[in-house]
Amino acid sequence: MKIKPEQLNRTLNSSSVPLYWLSGDDPLLMQEAADTIRSHFRSAGFLERDVLSVDRSFNWEEFQHLTSNLSLFSEQKIIELRLSSAKLDDQGKKAIQRYLDEPNPDFLILISGPKLDAGTLKTKWFTQIESAGVLMQIWPVKREELHSWLEQRLIREGIQAEPQAISLLADKVEGNLLAAMQEIEKIKLLSNTPDGQTITLDSKTVMQIVADSSRFNAYQLVDAAFLGDTPRSQKMLTALRNEGIFPLVILAAISRELRSLIPMLESAEKGQNIPSIIQAFRVWFNRKNAISSVLGRMNQEKVWELLNHCRLIDQSIKGMNVANPWDELSRLLLLVSARESVSSV
Length: 345
What we know:
Elements lengths: L1 E2 L4 H7 L4 E6 L2 H17 L4 E7 L5 H9 L8 E7 L6 H12 L5 E7 L4 H4 L2 H9 L1 E5 L4 H14 L2 E3 L1 H11 L3 H14 L8 E3 L1 H7 L8 H9 L3 H13 L4 H23 L4 H7 L7 H8 L4 H18 L7 H13 L8
Parallel strand pairs: 1-6, 2-5, 2-6, 3-4, 4-5, 7-8
C-alpha cells in the first residue's frame, strides 16, 4: 500500500507487512522516516540489523543468503537495502519478489532509495511489491512550506522565533534541511539559555549565528527560472558556482528541460489547454506550477532561440569561443525567467 509520511506511525502500529520502501531525495526526511521504522521494530524485538548497499556491482545472492539463513534460534532482524539507483536490475527484482512470495515473519525488509519515476510505479512488478508491503514517497519541503516547517521544528526544540527571523533562516538554509537542523542545534548551543527555558530568536541573532547553507541542484534552478522567479534563479546559479559545480552540468539540465517543452508547446499551438498538456505528458505534481508557468509565456520559436544560446554556452565551456560561460548562463536564465519578452540577440 502507498502511504504519506504523516501516516507512517499509524501504519506501523496497525499493519504487519514484510517490507517498507522509502523513496525520496531529501537526506534528512529519508533518515527520519527510516529511524522511525527502525525504532518501532526495535521496540518489537527486532534487535539485529544488516545493512546492504546496492549498486551495480551488488551480488543479490548475498541478500538471498541472508533471507534464507534460518536458525534454530529465531532472531528478529531488520535487513536494509540502500539503493544507489531508483531502478533495480532483473536479478534484484526477482530476489525481492522471491522473498515476498514466502516472507519470514522474523525479518523486516527496509528499502531506501532515490525518487521512483512514474513508469516504475506503474510496472506490474512494482505494483506487486506495493501490494505486499508499504511504499512511502518522501517529497522535499516546498519553498512556500519551509517557513512553517522551520517554525514547527523550532517550537519542538523550545525556540520561539520572530517571523522575520524564521524568514531569514529559511533563506539561508533553503534546499538543505540537514543544514537547517544543524543550524537549529547551533542556535540552542550558543543561546546560553538553561535547559527547559524558552529561547527567543530574532533576526539579529540569526545573522550572527547562521551560515549560508543553501544547497540547490540544477533542476531546482530550472524550475525557479520556469516559474519566472528571476532573483531566486540568479541566487541559485551563484550558489552552484560557489560549490564548484561544473557549468556543463547546469547547461545540460537547462537544455534538457527546454527540449522537453517543445512537444508540449506543439500541443498548445494546436489548441490543447495547459492542464490537459500537463496530464498528457505526465508532469510530476511538484513541477506542475513551473511547467504551467513557462508554457504560458513561451512558444516554440522562443525555445529554439534559447537552445541556440545553449549551443553557444557549450562552445564557451569547451574553449571554442571567448564568452564567459557563467555570465552566459546567467543571461540564459534571465531570458528563461523573464515574464515579459526579452531579446536574446
